[in-house]
Amino acid sequence: MLSEIKSIPVHAKYFLENSNSYSLPLKVPYIGMGSSYFSSLAFKYMGVDIYPELASEFFNYVHTGKKLKNGVLLSQSGKSSEVLWCTSCFNKYTAISNDVNSPLCKSAGIDNVISLLADEEKFSSSKSYINTLLALFKGFGFDIQKPVELLTNNFATYDQQGKALADVIFERLQSGNVRGIYITGSGPNVATAMQAGLIMSEMTKLNFHGLPMAQYDHGPKETAKDSIVIQILSRGKSYDRSVRLAEVIRSAGATVLTVEEPQATENESILNNIVPFNFMGYYLSQLLNVYDTFVVGGKITEVSE
């Protein structure tokens, strides 16, 4: 697990140097589950004109049965059942996957395949999530050279931050009752909060709840006493509100921690802010003596319709 996390900069730079030239369509559905869904959601909140959809709900509740002209289907494994169902919803689609030989990349209707070039991944999504973000950044015409350099240059700091956060949370867990653990973010970092909640839950077997900061402010803050709240911060429109909310919930008895990359723009910070959580998940799982990532299910979710 630690080896996969530490290889994030290597595979990010490899994608930057070796991915083919391409562009991604606008005003079409971007279909995924889990990490793949969160990645496209980040770009919606950057103002990119796309329609992120959960594959399961899109297939069962949104799609009317008439084939749409075009779409983008994201699955790091290329084998997630719900995403595969959605291949039948489009006349043609672009596949974004880490496995170009997967069913997603070989189904009828495939128009273009974008490889994540992240190599095999056995544990919670780390390098493949970063490369999915890079694939979207590139496809929407963003310059990603400097963001990847920042990720590489500050990577050791994210390791230290993750370990420090794990130590604080472990000590807090050992000291008594913890009523909830929340991870909050705003704008594109809503996706970061959701991704962090997913991987932290997978890796530690504790319930980490990732959600928008404003949504937390609309009710869940009432659980602040004896809770842990990790705020993902970036210098954007919601920054001041996040700081004020931290003061309120800290006064109400919450342990408030923060993750922030001050050198990154708000949009680009999604590449940086997730990495401390990868490290935190690893170090906290070690402190908790949790060594198996997937116990109840596997890394790839395969279900029947």
Q: Supply the helix-strand structural class.
A: alpha/beta
Radius of gyration: 19 Å
Q: What's the order of the H and E elements?
A: HHEHEHEHEHEHHHEHEHEHEHH
Work out the helix count: 14
Q: Tell how many strands the DSSP assignment holds.
A: 9
Unreliable segments of 5+ consecutive residues: none
Residue-averaged pLDDT, rounded? 93
* Main sheet: strands, sense, barrel: 5 strands, parallel
Strand-residue fraction? 15-25%
Determine the N-to-C terminus distance.
32 Å
Q: Give the % helix.
A: 40-55%
Inertia-based shape:
globular
The main sheet orders its strands as: 2-1-3-4-5
How would you describe this structure to a colleague?
The strands form two sheets. The protein has a five-stranded parallel β-sheet. The chain starts with a helix and ends in an 18-residue tail after the last helix. Helices cover 45% and strands 17% of the residues. The mean pLDDT is 93. Helix 2 runs parallel beside helix 7 and helix 9 (155-175) crosses helix 14. By secondary structure, the protein is α/β, with parallel strands linked by helices. Helix 6 links the parallel strand 4 and strand 5 (110-115). The protein has helices at residues 2-6, 8-18, 35-44, 55-62, 81-85, 103-106, 127-139, 145-153, 155-175, 189-204, 213-217, 239-251, 270-273, 275-287; strands at residues 29-32, 51-54, 68-74, 90-97, 110-115, 180-185, 208-212, 227-233, 255-260. The chain is built from 14 helices and nine strands.
